[in-house]
Amino acid sequence: MIFKEPKRNGISRPKSDTSTIGQLWDLFDRLSLAQNSLIERKDATAIALASGFNHNTVGRQYGEWKKYNLPSEAVQTAPERSNTAFAANIPQAALEVSDPIETAVHAVKAAEDRVARELLTRLQEESPEFFEKAVIRLLLAMGYGGRENFYEHSGQPNDGGIDGIIKQDPLGIQKIYLQAKRYADNNSVGRDAIQSFVGALHPSGVASGVFLTTSNFTSGAREYARSVGGKVILIDGKELAKLMIRYRVGIQTRQVLEIVEIDEDFFIEDGLF
Questions:
Q1: Is residue 72 classed as helix, strand or coil in its secondary structure?
Q2: What CATH architecture applies to the domain 123-246?
Q3: With the C-alpha atoms ordered 266, 270, 272, 273, is the resulting torsion angle positive or negative?
Q4: What are the sequence ranges of the domains in the chain?
Q5: 120 vs 147: CA distance, rounded Å
Q6: Strands 164-167 and 208-213: what pairing?
């Protein structure tokens, strides 16, 4: 439910803390405040899309937002008050960020947070086999597996707790064993699962393993992992999403924004030639 207040120019303003639309309006506010004027549609759209907002929502809400912020008839007859009237329409929360670069950084961070949540949801909806292959793809993107990308997908009903193997050299002398658990957010991986994974590593003489999940690890699981001296690396859902974004696995770049500024060297004497 969207709560709308106050009303201006026939448009009710959505509250930012209760709706995505309100957050979008706040973004338009911050961008406009940074340049001391209402941001143009094309600029607002570019940054909003980079922040992860839906294209149709951005197009529709920009028109509503601009109509809301346009000076009323009374304001139009008093030019000397126009700047004050514009500032009065900007919520106090939007005044915190006034630098356009800082605003863009905030927008990119918001987009990454939104994509991270969506990534985990999508992974949880896929099959266990898909998730096992996805984490192998991530490890390869991170540089493991050597230049030839040596790996095995071993996930089977009786896989002995090993879902994937990354070979660091052509002969497979150095290996990294993987265990992948596609769990719901409320289904944390416990100590027993980590103990079983360590037990699977021992007979093979593998030096290290990586246990990845879309959920979390219990404190007991983390404590046990520390007790085996770094033999097992734990990657929970939050860290997994960050790594996938960092190494561009399961995501793509939608748009690149360029922020320009004055080239001071250009204006130095004799700097032209």
A1: coil
A2: 3-Layer(aba) Sandwich (3.40)
A3: negative
A4: 4-98, 123-246
A5: 28
A6: unpaired
The C-alpha atoms of residue 21 and residue 36 are separated, in whole angstroms, by 22
CA 173 to chain centre: 36
pLDDT tens digits along 198-229: 988 876 666 689 999 999 999 999 999 999 88
Among the residue ranges 5-9, 19-23, 210-214, 224-228, the one predicted with the least confidence is: 5-9
Provide the pairing of β-strand 150-153 with 164-167. Answer: antiparallel
Name which of 41-55, 99-113, 131-145 the model is least confident about: 99-113
Kindly give, in sequence order, each residue whose CB lies less than 8 Å from that of residue 229, ignoring residues fewer than 6 positions away: none
Rounded-to-integer distance, Cα 180 and Cα 170, Å: 24
Residue showing tokens 């605003």? 103
Q: Is 177 buried (19+), middle (13-18) or exposed (0-12) by CB count in 10 A? A: buried
Opening angle at CA 238, ends 177 and 245, nearest 5: 85
* Terminal alpha carbon distance of the chain: 62
Is it true that the peptide bond before 6 is cis, omega within 30 degrees of 0?
yes
Q: How far apart are the C-alpha atoms of 214 and 3, rounded to whole Å?
A: 34
The β-bridge relationship of strands 164-167 and 175-181 is antiparallel
Distance between CA atoms of 76 and 241, rounded to whole angstroms?
A: 49
Number of other residues whose CB lies within 10 A of the CB of residue 91: 14
The answer to whether 27 and 102 are in contact (CB under 8 A) is no
Q: Tell me, what DSSP letter sits at residue 168?
A: S
Q: In what order do the strands lie in the sheet with 164-167?
A: 150-153, 164-167, 175-181, 208-213, 232-235
